[in-house]
Queue: 2 jobs
Job 1
Amino acid sequence: MQRLIRNRQLRIWLIVARAAAAALTLSLAAAINAQVITVQDDAQHAVVLPRPAHRIVSLAPHATELLFAAGAGPYVIGVSDYSDYPPSARQIPSMGSSSALDIERIVALKPDLVVAWGSGNVASQIARLRAIGIPVFESEPRQLETIASSLLRLSQLAGTEQSGAAAAASFKTRLAQLDATYRQRPTVRVFYQIWQKPLMTLNDSHMVSSVITLCGGENVFGKLPQLAPTVSTEAVLQANPEVIFAADGGAASNTGWRRFPQLAAVAANNLFALTPNWMSRPGPRILDGAAELCQKLDLARSRRKP
């Protein structure tokens, strides 16, 4: 009889033990799954990490700025050439230029995340990093709102959500203020020059056009199909912009337009330079560039003849 009771107790104990073990297994699995981070990059790829990335390589200057703004700066262990903002980024080893990366050096750093530039890095090099098994987030903001989203997503990947959320909120607030101030102003026709020889500009798919529109401007070459089309001097004369911006920091007046006094921009002296990097990098500082561009368009409006 006592043996029967003991056997019954043993069976009960085994059932309880197995249930406890199963519950523990489920609990551990849930904990592991809770650590997994999944975000979508700008190329619509799912980026999956088992834990927050604390060894990050940035392959473009704008990506470096985004990472630092999202609070992930302490985890950036490699950058590309010209990653000079914030100043502390200059102390981080370079992995080469955006278009000519040192893949072996990147792999040697054992990164748990690479932030690539969709249109600026060489596709085959990015594919090689993926083939090795390194998670890659492709950054290609084309709209101003995407910068705020990028800050949030990168902070998720780095485990710095609080910093990323604060930076995104600050960006959205400032963007809304600029929009409220300038969008309803009278339209100004703009030629945005990014290169002189050959003469090049940007179309409406580029973020720069989003800024021009934000400020109440119209990109005279916005409808061209190429992202960065080459145009002729004759095409600029025919478009007759009221404002010409030189995007490389050089004064537009030094690019030869003054020899065409019939141009509306020349006649009104609306040949402007812009601060280098503010507009060319799709990061948080683009709103500094937007504020500068908006102010210059307002100046052009004030110079219109009654």
Job 2
Amino acid sequence: MNRLLEVTDLTVSFTTDEGTFRAVEGVSFHVSPGEIVGLVGESGCGKSVTALSLLRLVPSPPGRIESGRILFKDEDLLRVGVKRMQEIRGNEISMIFQEPTSALSPLHRIGHQLVEAVQLHRAVSKKTAWDMAEAALKKVSLPDVSQKMFAYPHALSGGMQQRVMIAMALLLNPDLVIADEPTTALDVTVQAQIFEQLLQMREISTAVLLITHDMGIIWETCDRVLVMYAARVVEEAGKDALFKNPAHPYTRALLASIPRPVRNKSRLQVISGQVPSPLHFLSGCRFRDRCAFAHDRCAREVPELRNLGGGHRAACFLVKGV
């Protein structure tokens, strides 16, 4: 299968006053053209750092990409020059950031920022760029677009700022969109419209790496799913296989904690404990202190991702590989 993006053994560390820790460790995955891949897990598992690493946006210091390879259209993004990365960002790969207030410039009007993004990568007139920007804002259902183009970010609500970010990311029809919790501040109606637009982008072979906590969104939009826990990928599978036959105890726990409309008054299942600090990861399997199936081997050895067939992999000693 043709692969648009292929990440191999990515490891990212941070140095703090309390010590050095790995926020991402040995992560490998791929994304094909037109494919929507979900990256799911609790906060602090390394999802956002993985996404930032793809565009070399990890702040340095304190962050550092220790090792790995990020092939995008057969070009290693960890080895290209600064100018080439600037050409790729926003044009071939775009990102919808989790926090729009820190991603939009407070000193420039919305229209200026969108027009600048267009003219940075396209040889078009300012009027053409302006028309493209307005059209992009209309697609994300921003009201009163003509007025909002002259507004500063602080004059917009959080949800409107998020829609501007989404419009900017989709503006130039990139090959890959990295969406980090793209609809957190939006109501469910606008959420549905945004995800429908992401799905439509498959028609031009745009791929999406979707980072979310919402397993319902994963089910509705994704083709494949990566489950991360404590800086590592613990399971990878097609969407149907993951929901029907989750192999890793952490994935099972995530799915069991989804609220469901039931007539009885049974309590919602929760995952005991919390994601450990990256400064104090457990030896062996990092989920073992929260796992009901943990045994002695889980403390001694690190479980590797085992092939279960059909592109399904899981890092657990309880599963049998093929």
